[in-house]
Amino acid sequence: MNGLMQMAGVIADANSLVSQLKNFFLVGVLGLMYVVSIAWVWGQTKSVLKAGVAAIGGAVVLAIVVNMAVLRDKIGEDIKNPSSAAAPVAERVVGPLDGGRR
Known about the structure:
Elements: H1 2-45, H2 48-66, H3 68-80, H4 82-85
Helix pairs in contact: 1-2
């Protein structure tokens, strides 16, 4: 029984380590890549506008990566239940082009 309890502790420690590594990569590595990419664009172009565009583009990518689970679930629900995903579409029925005369 003691071995089983130790194994449960090892699994909990492994899950904790994986969670910490995930947070490190999301915050540390992606954040560093974000800052370095903006600095690289600024260094290459010396343009505030281009650096701003790089910052906005990087922020969009970071938001997508951080919210990937939410987006995955939302897209999955849209695929499973397509009628609730899209708003109703107005349809226009067009009659014959000759006005109904033959």
